[in-house]
Every structure is written in structure tokens, then in C-alpha cells.
Amino acid sequence: MNIGFSGKVVLVAGGTGGLGRDVSLAFLREGAKVVVSYRKEEEFAALKAAAGPAAPALYGQIVDITDEAAVAEFVAGVLSRHGQLDSVVNTVGGYAGGIKLWDLETRILDAMLSLNLRSGFILARAVLPAMLKQGRGSIVNVAAKAAFDHGAGAAAYAASKAAAVALIDSLAADTKGTGVRVNSILPSIIDTLPNRRAMPNADFAAWPKPQDIAQVILFLCSDMATTIHGASIPVYGNS
Fold this sequence. Notes:
alpha/beta, Rossmann fold, 7-stranded parallel beta sheet, 7 helices, globular
């Protein structure tokens, strides 16, 4: 897909993770300047190596996206360095499952709400003033199929992802007519190495691949998707 992000600045939160890595590389291949937040130095080093000739267009910083002050400082630095922010993708998240609600510890609920809801809230609050001033921008938040498919043993995860979709839906209404577009994507189980290790007997072929999901995100952030706003896009693969 040749969409073209030359001259564009893209922030990928969690940009070295299982999905974030492929999203970051996809934007780099399309000519974007990519800024990533990450938590592990070795993951950023691996991303930089994978970027190859595009590595000079990649910048990263260790940031806890659930920390409001840290994110505000991070975004301010991006704007100071580049003078613009065209697209923001939030791939930060976590999973906890296999626990009946009556056995669920409050700390697990709090962790899911922090990773899957608070991260998107804090990131959007930090980047929107600049995007509104520009009169343009795209935000894509990675939710999950579980936002609508509320399976047994996943109460905290499903609730946090459902809340994330509601947050983005409401934000889309807030930003209508501003030039800023806001959308969610809803992956099922993504074909990553940690997920394969966690479910070794699963049918991996049915899971959506990170690189394929990245193409959906590229499209949503591109000028080709200017009519898509307030959508929740399923990316379930064959699962």
C-alpha cells in the first residue's frame, strides 16, 4: 500500500511492542518521521535495527503512557522538535483473563483500566490541543474485539476495552468538524510471540497478523480515509 506519509510526524505509543513495532515500521516505510514511546531499551534497539535505512527518521523515549505529567512532557518535546503532529496511534494495553469475577482482585481491574483506558485518555488530552490548533490530525486507539464480545473470565479486560471504545466514540463527537479524526480498531487475538507462547495449542493461522493490522492503521491515518471518523473497525482475521 503506497499511501504516502512523507513530511508527516507520527507518534506511536507502545511503538516497540508486539503490534506497535509493526505499526512503527509501516509508517517509516511510507516516509513518516516516527516517534515512539517504549519501556525497554532492548526493544527500541531492535526496532531501530529493523528500520534499516529509515532509522534516522525514528526517535524514541522511555515513557509511561499512564503518567499524565510524563506524557505531557513527551508530547511537548515532540512538538518542539518537529513543530507538528499529524497522527497518533495508541497501541498500549494489557490483558488479564481466565479469572471469574468473584475471584478477580481489585488490583487487576485497576491495572486493566490504567493500561487500556487511562492510556488513551491521557494521550488524547496531551495531543489534541496541537491538533485542534493545526486543524488536522488523526488518532487511532487500539481497543479489542472483547469490547463487544464479553467472554467468561475476562470481566476486567472486556470492561476496560468497552470503556476505551466509548471514550473514543465520545471524543469523535467532540471533534466533529475540527479536522481531527478519531477512530478505534478492534483486533481479536493478535499473532504475536507472547500470545503463541500463552496459547500453544491455538490455531495461529486464524489470528490477525500485526503487519496486516498495521496496514489498516496506516489507511485510517491517511488522507485516503478523510471520511472515516468515529468508527470502530473490526480486525478479527479468520478467528
